[in-house]
Amino acid sequence: MKTDFLSQIAFDSNGLVPAIAQQHDSGEVLMMAWMNKDAVLETLDTGQVCYWSRSRQSLWRKGETSGHVQALKDFRIDCDGDTLLLLVDQTGVACHTGRHNCFFTAIRDSQAEIISDVEVSPEDMYGIPAEDR
């Protein structure tokens, strides 16, 4: 795979860049995660989205455990090169809480309000309670 485009991505001092996943056909913003060069290259090579897990310090292949994968439809770099936009086809839910997307808390009248229900329990997705993950 030709990798000349990597010079257009402004990875931070930790070698990471934020990546926003957006449902390709509805425009729904699903989640934000981090990618390093290896995650970018694997995603483009396989067509399945791969991120970098800062907590595990390893590649995180979206859906590897839960089965809720993201198939890449388009890969975009913003004007400054410091944020990626991944247009994806999300299978299942995107959020580890079992919600369709990670943006389920809205601030309304200075109060946090949960605006999305859990669709799949984290225990069902991962086989272990959320507090033990």
Helix content: 10-25%
Number of helical stretches of at least 4 residues: 2
Question: Count the strands?
Answer: 8
CATH topology of the domain at 15-96: Ubiquitin-like (UB roll)
Strand content: 25-35%
Walk me through the structure.
The chain has helices at 37-46, 122-126; strands spanning 17-23, 29-35, 50-53, 58-61, 70-77, 84-90, 105-108, 111-114. It is mainly beta. The protein has a four-stranded mixed sheet with strand order 2-1-6-5, with helices on one face. A two-stranded antiparallel sheet has the order 3-4. The chain is globular and about 45 Å long. The N and C termini lie far apart (35 Å).
Notable characteristics:
133 residues; mainly beta; Ubiquitin-like (UB roll); four-stranded mixed sheet; two-stranded antiparallel ribbon; 2 helices; 8 strands; 11% helix
List the helices and strands and how they pair.
Blueprint: E1 17-23, E2 29-35, H1 37-46, E3 50-53, E4 58-61, E5 70-77, E6 84-90, E7 105-108, E8 111-114, H2 122-126
Parallel strand pairs: 1-6
Antiparallel strand pairs: 1-2, 3-4, 5-6, 7-8
